[in-house]
Amino acid sequence: MDMRTPLGKVRGLGSAKSGTEHFWRVRTTSVALVPLLVFYIVFLIVYAGKPYAEVVGALANPFVATINGLTVIASIIHMRLGMEEIIQDYVHSEGMKIALLILNAFFSLLVGGLCLFAVLKIAFAG
Amino acid sequence: MANVTNNRPLSPHLQVYKFIPTMAMSIVHRITGGALYFGTLLVAAWLISAASGEEYFNWVNWLFGSIVGQLVLFGYTWALIHHLLGGLRHIMWDLGYGFEKEFSTKLAKANLVASILLTVLVWAIVLIVR
Questions:
Q1: Which residues 26-55 of chain A have a CB within 8 Å of chain B?
Q2: pLDDT band per the 50, 70, 90 thresholds, residue B129
Q3: Which of A105, A125, B52, B53 suits B90 as a labelling partner, its CA being 20 to 30 A distant?
């Protein structure tokens, strides 16, 4: 027996009211992160331990700065969603769960904001 | 209504299942994901120091170059590569492939072996290039 209303079926959001959006965003960011991180790892292999001027010069390159910014954005969305899943799985008290979910959002945005600011500052001001 | 939710039956958890490679790698995937979450602070520290000037940059570089720093970065590299390879397995499953028992078990073992080999390879190249 199907108790759902026609509208509910069309929306397809289920009891969590968000449908597959969480799942979908985890997958899209993960697909984006595969090439981005491969580039990042190669970049770090080349520039690990190099002097300041050389590293900043490379980071200021428009192509590198763009890839860097995209990597930061995809990473913070992916890590926030992943940690959300972990919190929802293991934290059972409602108050603590909400507090940690908010903390997770703040932490991800703070780290992402700082990284983006650093990337843009190096690109525009050196 | 007070204790209704507390007395609900729980679904069986980890301890009732036989420990097998796919399960182990699933757990490691989640642990490495959690570690990478906090490891982002390392990348943030590096980028912010590069944006803040030579003195800060050299200080962070010195910190990362210390024995503890190198160990943490080595672990971070492994966690990243393991999680990345695990993610590729998840994409494969999402597309509907690779659910056969023998194949997925082999792939779970391969995930671990490849992550270690690739981590060692990355570090070997870094040390040779330097």
A1: 27, 30-31, 33-34, 37, 41, 44-46, 48-49, 52-53, 55
A2: confident
A3: A105
Cβ atoms of residues B93 and B127 within 8 Å: no
Residue B75: is its pLDDT beyond 90? yes
Indicate the fold that domain A21-125 takes in CATH. 3 helical TM bundles of succinate and fumarate reductases (1.20.1300)
| Three-state SS at A5 | coil
| d(CA B54, nearest CA chain A) in Å | 6
Pair A85, B34: CB distance under 8 Å: no
Tokens of A118: 């650093």
Q: Is 70 exceeded by the pLDDT of residue B2?
A: no
At residue A3, the 3 state secondary structure works out as: coil
| Residue A106 vs residues B44, B46, B106: alpha-carbon distances, Å | 15, 20, 39
- Does the beta-carbon distance from A27 to B91 stay under 8 Å? yes
Helix (H) or strand (E) holding B97: none
CATH class of B21-129: mainly alpha
Q: What pLDDT was estimated at residue A8?
A: 83
pTM of the model: 0.89
Domain ranges, ordered by start, for chain B: 21-129
| Cross-chain CB nearest to B44 (options A33, A114, A121) | A114
Share of chain A above pLDDT 90, in %: 75
Taking residues B86-109, what's their average pLDDT? Answer: 96
